[in-house]
Amino acid sequence: MFKIRVPASTANLGPGFDCFGLALSLYIELTAKPSSRWELELQGEGAERLPSDETNLIVRVAQTTAASCNIALPPMQLLINNSIPPARGLGSSAAAITAGIALVEAARQKEFSLQEFFKHARKFEPHVDNLSAARLGGFTVCCINDSYKVFVARHEWPTTIKAVVAIPEYELNTKRSRSVLANRYSRSDAVFNLQHAALLQSGILTNRPDLISVAMKDRLHQPYRAELVPGLTEALELRLPGLIATALSGSGPTVVAFITENELAISSSLKELFASKGIVSQTQTLSIDTEGRKIDEI
User: Which of 21, 109, 135, 265 lies at a CB distance of 3.0 to 4.6 Å from 140, suitable for a disulfide?
Assistant: First the structure.
């Protein structure tokens, strides 16, 4: 019998499109024990509509991963408690995929290497920003080379900076959110994002909120996705004491604000901003998860 915990994540952080990931303190928690057949009990976010049989993403990933490794994966009884809202830009799919691979790791009592993890995970999710944060925790910078090998650098996040997330009630799937992006970008926009992404990483690594505030600007995805997220443009321009910068979380529609203080006023402002567009939202103040995927015997 074992327990698995995988964090949510926010990706891009403004200019780091498909490059940056950050693990957040919302989780999929899964308790597994042997059974004569697959049995799933779902609790929390999405429990009323996500599959509770072998078509569940976690089980599909586990079975596919085991089969590709010639591992005999026994059926299990799973209690899945999920606090990550699905289809909101908080890495719910990446967390589920990571949890499915972790089931195989726990069953075989051996971790996959990071490259093996990505090989299995990318069968279900080609973008590794959320996956890297879910697996490793902290702030991650990822790259895929011409041979499709994944390179990831993991860094500690400044302990004084928290994240406020404003989560609209409506869902927005990644495919729809990617469909509005441009097919070509100007040289000036590409250079703009390169400069800001480099400065953002420097600001994070040196704990410089002033640099982070300047750097978290983007021209590659947020301007295009604004049509799908009413209020995003205004949220990106929000200025309040204690607020460093805001960004669209992943493909949206969640907005993430990075703060040092004044969380109640910032949370209220984001909620009111969405409300002014006729959108109901919930806000939470989250810490940065530093552990990533955990597997514990119980």
Answer: 21
- At which residue do the structure tokens 């993991």 appear? 154
Domain enclosing residue 181, as ranges: 162-286
Q: Which residues pair with 167 in a beta bridge?
A: 282
Helices 57-68, 114-121: axis angle to 10 degrees equals 120
Structure tokens at 202: 């420097």
Please indicate, yes or no, if residue 237 is contained in any of the structural domains. yes
What are the mean pLDDT values of the chain's consecutive 10-residue runs (298 residues total)? 96 97 98 93 93 94 95 93 96 98 94 96 95 98 93 96 97 91 96 98 97 98 96 96 98 97 97 96 97 94
Q: What is the pairing mode between strands 39-44 and 76-82?
A: parallel
Give the angle 31-33-39 at the CA atoms, nearest 5°.
85
Same domain, 21 and 152: yes
The one-letter amino acid code at 280 reads V
Question: Residue 40: helix, strand or coil by DSSP?
Answer: strand
Paired tokens of 10: 């926010």
